[in-house]
């Protein structure tokens, strides 16, 4: 009889032994996992019960029933049993005190700010006022010759008004703008509204010893023109605005009065300059309410 036959008769086969060896560690792992699961499940239940008990205890600390029960407790351990409740109340009082202090500080800061700035927007207005850029120049009849040929600046037409009143006499003023030789010098880049008005005034002198031919020529229509130029880094001024009017005086009229006004929005850069020139400079009346020139920053 062979050895293989004896093994098969007297005990498990080799494959069965190998299967048992494989299943045994697996069963051990399953048992350990089950034991671990049951352990942690029990611990979590106990923790949840403890949290519920603490929550219930904290809630009871805020109810009269709990206080009445503790005050009526005949045992001498009532004070010892009230320690968790007292601790909870102390923490709650500290939290409330902290929140109240925060609210008080915020309200005090808002009140101080409103007292220092009662109109709310005054601070912002003052900041914008500091950055205000504006100018209004007026005519001055005391200047005998306020004009110069603007052709000296290049191809600019007409006679440049080289003198304007800017010393706060009357309605003139300057804010963050300089004026040199009748030119406004821009101090801040932005969009500006530029405007100007010139007053043309022709007077027929009585008893003048002019011939009929010269008188007829003086009554001929004239082209009255106002120019506003910008001076940049380019060699020649740039024409921004131009306004034209043709005069036609009556033969029997003593005065011929015309005014030209124009204005517009333009982008100007720092250190650029603007000026006004006119035709027929001898007809210009530099009355401060009738002839003026200005600009102001709009954004």
Automatic annotation (TrEMBL):
Taxonomic placement: Eukaryota, Metazoa, Chordata, Craniata, Vertebrata
A Pfam cross-reference name: TNF
Family, as annotated: Belongs to the tumor necrosis factor family.
Nuclease keyword on record: no
PROSITE patterns: THD_2
PANTHER family: TUMOR NECROSIS FACTOR FAMILY MEMBER (PTHR11471), TUMOR NECROSIS FACTOR LIGAND SUPERFAMILY MEMBER 10 (PTHR11471:SF27)
Protein keywords: Apoptosis, Cell membrane, Cytokine, Membrane, Metal-binding, Phosphoprotein, Secreted, Signal-anchor, Transmembrane, Transmembrane helix, Zinc
InterPro entries referenced in this protein's UniProt entry, alphabetically: TNF_dom (IPR006052), TNF_ligand_10/11 (IPR017355), Tumour_necrosis_fac-like_dom (IPR008983)
Biological-process GO terms, alphabetical: immune response; positive regulation of canonical NF-kappaB signal transduction; positive regulation of extrinsic apoptotic signaling pathway; positive regulation of release of cytochrome c from mitochondria; TRAIL-activated apoptotic signaling pathway
Record's protein name: Tumor necrosis factor ligand superfamily member
Membrane topology reported for the UniProt record: Single-pass type II membrane protein
Biological role stated in the UniProt entry: Cytokine that binds to TNFRSF10A/TRAILR1, TNFRSF10B/TRAILR2, TNFRSF10C/TRAILR3, TNFRSF10D/TRAILR4 and possibly also to TNFRSF11B/OPG. Induces apoptosis. Its activity may be modulated by binding to the decoy receptors TNFRSF10C/TRAILR3, TNFRSF10D/TRAILR4 and TNFRSF11B/OPG that cannot induce apoptosis.
Quaternary structure annotation from Swiss-Prot or TrEMBL: Homotrimer. One TNFSF10 homotrimer interacts with three TNFSF10A mononers. One TNFSF10 homotrimer interacts with three TNFSF10B mononers.
Record GO terms (molecular function): cytokine activity; identical protein binding; tumor necrosis factor receptor binding; zinc ion binding
Residue numbers binding Zn(2+): 248
Main localization of the protein described in the UniProt heading: membrane
Gene: TNFSF10
Domain called THD: residue spans: 133-298
GO CC annotation, single: plasma membrane
Localization, UniProt: Cell membrane; Secreted
Sequence intervals crossing the membrane: 20-40
């Amino acid at each position: 009889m062979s050895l293989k036959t004896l093994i098969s008769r007297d005990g498990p086969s080799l494959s069965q032994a190998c299967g048992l060896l494989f299943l045994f560690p697996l069963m051990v792992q399953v048992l350990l996992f089950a034991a671990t699961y049951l352990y942690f499940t029990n611990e979590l239940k106990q923790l949840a019960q403890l949290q519920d008990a603490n929550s219930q205890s904290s809630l009871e600390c805020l109810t009269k029933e709990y206080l009445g029960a503790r005050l009526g407790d005949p045992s001498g351990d009532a004070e010892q049993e009230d320690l968790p409740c007292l601790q909870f109340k102390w923490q709650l009082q500290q939290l409330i005190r902290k929140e109240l202090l925060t609210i008080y500080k915020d309200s005090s800061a808002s009140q101080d700010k409103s007292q220092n700035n009662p109109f709310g927007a005054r601070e912002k207005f003052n900041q914008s006022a500091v950055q205000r850029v504006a100018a209004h120049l007026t005519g001055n009849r005391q200047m005998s010759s306020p004009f110069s040929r603007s052709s000296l600046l290049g191809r600019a037409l007409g006679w440049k008004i080289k003198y304007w009143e800017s010393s706060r006499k009357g309605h003139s003023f300057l804010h963050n703008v300089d004026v040199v030789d009748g030119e406004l010098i821009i101090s801040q880049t932005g969009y500006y509204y530029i405007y100007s008005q010139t007053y043309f005034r022709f007077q027929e002198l009585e008893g003048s010893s002019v011939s009929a031919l010269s008188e007829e020529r003086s009554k001929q229509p004239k082209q009255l023109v106002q120019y506003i130029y910008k001076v940049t880094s380019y060699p020649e001024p740039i024409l921004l605005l131009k306004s034209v009017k043709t005069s036609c005086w009556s033969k029997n009229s003593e005065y011929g009065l015309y005014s030209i006004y124009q204005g517009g929005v333009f982008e100007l850069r720092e250190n650029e300059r603007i000026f006004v020139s006119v035709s027929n400079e001898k007809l210009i009346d530099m009355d401060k309410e009738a002839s003026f020139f200005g600009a102001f920053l709009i954004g």
